[in-house]
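Reminder to self: tokens first, then the designed residues, so the page reads top to bottom the way the pipeline ran.
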């Protein structure tokens, strides 16, 4: 659909909307999830004085995502992209405190890099005579301009989807309210980069695909490893999102963009439900997010626990839940593709780690005794929250099968040797066993616990990436500022400059003041001095 906004001297400004099966399906999912999230947040944010402002911000977020989805034009994509970046900043700093301001600044500055990349794409696409990229992808694939544009699009997608080295903003953005996290991590901000890659994927060359494979594989592995050493409930789920984004981009890099889109949709369903359940648990736990204080939740919160475990097992790829259809299909198609050994190992190791942290979460939240205050009383979530969770629960169970019929109407022939066929099952069972065992294991040996602490400090800090993106960025300017202060304000410049001039004038004024305080004595002294001088002149 094209809408002619204005025509001036034969030049037209036209707004184009693209309604194909990808955009319509994705729009439907975004609208369903956002409707259920807003219903959920009506009770979750109950008592907040600015709830109307919060709902309006969420709606602006959704409208920006709509712009991005239906735009085949880079300029209108930039409008949606900028809207997502700005509104995400406002939502992350919604609870106004020091940590949320820091997280918001990290989020918005990381996403500005993507904005600059998209602006450079707009500048380079002037060569083509139009900014509607959808017409050029196949025609200009392989040309120098298209390769440069593709690289800039990949850079923009890496910032939005938090791939290495831009990963640190995603767990930091957990400072936002939980309904926002459910929306951001399922179907809006972080998936915008993946959606852009799916749209531009026909123009990617071999080198760019290999680069994407490496970066996304490392991101997936890093996030899976980090989630196994994390104790913050929301951060574990945020790192699982990062891992799944790595899986989607890895799938795009081997040319399976329709499968990546399939996983994007199924992941949106169970991830939104996972965050909603986490919000309910956090509310009931008196705003505590530490999973070590939880335990035996299935007894005290049966409905929320059921939803949490369904979404958790869907994330693992439990058969016949939403995540199984897409993730199992991706692993089998990946095994049939021409992929190097490193990428193959990263994918299957990261899949095992996903099951590992899911079972670890299951152990800490559902098993054993309740570890919070002994006299603490629970309240199950409210009706609106329950209604929102039930809607997503049904979609998480049946959505994968329905999407399989829609996206893959014809069966795919998968022909693998026995060891590759069973590799997925072996990795899943091994990951679950290790995760459950690691959670229930207690450290008695000091040497072992010290080495474990060293590994966990490296893995749990996302390979020191937040350290580099915050301390690493701010350290050099702060050192220069300190040196400048030392030289100018406390050094020779000050001694010979303002402060030195002040002390000289101060000394002169003290002398002047001494004259004024001792006037009679000074006058007599001057009189004697003049008499002596006169006598001296008269004698000689």
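Designed residues (540 positions):
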């Amino acid at each position: 659909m094209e809408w002619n906004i204005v025509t001036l001297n034969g030049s037209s400004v036209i707004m184009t909307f693209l309604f194909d099966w990808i955009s319509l399906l994705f729009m439907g999912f975004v609208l369903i999830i956002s409707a259920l999230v807003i219903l959920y947040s009506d009770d979750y944010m109950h008592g907040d004085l600015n709830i109307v402002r919060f709902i309006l911000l969420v709606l602006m977020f959704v409208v920006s995502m709509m712009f991005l989805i239906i735009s085949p034009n880079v300029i209108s994509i930039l409008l949606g992209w900028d809207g997502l970046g700005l509104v995400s900043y406002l939502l992350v700093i919604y609870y106004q405190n020091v940590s949320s301001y820091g997280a918001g600044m990290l989020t918005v500055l990381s996403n500005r890099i993507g904005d600059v990349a998209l602006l450079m794409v707009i500048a380079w696409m002037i060569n083509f005579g139009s900014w509607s990229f959808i017409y050029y992808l196949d025609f200009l694939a392989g040309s120098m301009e298209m390769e440069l544009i593709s690289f800039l699009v990949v850079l923009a997608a890496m910032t939005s989807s938090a791939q290495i080295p831009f990963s640190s903003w995603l767990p930091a953005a957990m400072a936002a309210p939980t309904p926002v996290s459910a929306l951001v991590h399922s179907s809006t901000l972080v998936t915008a980069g993946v959606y852009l890659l799916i749209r531009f994927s026909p123009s990617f060359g071999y080198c760019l695909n290999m680069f994407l494979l490496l970066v996304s594989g490392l991101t997936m592995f890093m996030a899976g490893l980090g989630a196994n050493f994390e104790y913050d409930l929301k951060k574990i789920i945020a790192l699982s999102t990062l891992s799944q984004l790595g899986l989607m981009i890895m799938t795009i890099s081997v040319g399976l963009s329709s499968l990546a889109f399939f996983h994007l949709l199924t992941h949106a369903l169970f991830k939104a439900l996972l965050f909603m359940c986490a919000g309910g648990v956090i509310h009931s736990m008196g705003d505590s997010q530490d999973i070590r204080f939880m335990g035996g939740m299935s007894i005290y919160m049966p409905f929320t626990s059921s939803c949490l475990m369904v979404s958790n097992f869907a994330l693992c790829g439990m058969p016949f839940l939403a995540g199984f259809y897409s993730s199992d299909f991706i692993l089998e198609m990946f095994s049939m593709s021409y992929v190097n050994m490193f990428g193959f190992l990263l994918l299957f190791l990261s899949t095992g780690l996903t099951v590992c942290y899911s079972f670890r979460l299951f152990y800490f939240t559902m098993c054993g005794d309740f570890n919070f205050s002994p006299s603490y009383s629970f309240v199950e979530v409210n009706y609106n929250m329950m209604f929102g969770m039930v809607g997503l629960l049904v979609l998480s169970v049946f959505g994968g099968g329905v999407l399989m019929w829609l996206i893959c109407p014809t069966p795919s022939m998968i022909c693998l040797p026995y060891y590759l066929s069973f590799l997925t099952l072996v990795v899943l069972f091994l990951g679950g066993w290790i995760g459950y065992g690691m959670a229930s294991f207690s450290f008695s040996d000091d040497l072992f616990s010290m080495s474990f602490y060293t590994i966990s400090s490296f893995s749990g800090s996302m390979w020191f990436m937040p350290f580099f993106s915050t301390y690493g960025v701010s350290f050099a300017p702060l050192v220069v500022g300190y040196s400048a202060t030392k030289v100018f304000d406390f050094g020779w410049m000050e001694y010979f400059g303002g402060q030195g001039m002040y002390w000289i004038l101060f000394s002169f004024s003290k002398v002047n003041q001494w004259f004024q305080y001792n006037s009679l004595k000074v006058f007599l002294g001057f009189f004697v001095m003049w008499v002596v001088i006169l006598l001296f002149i008269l004698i000689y």
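Residues 98-125 form the longest helix (28 residues).
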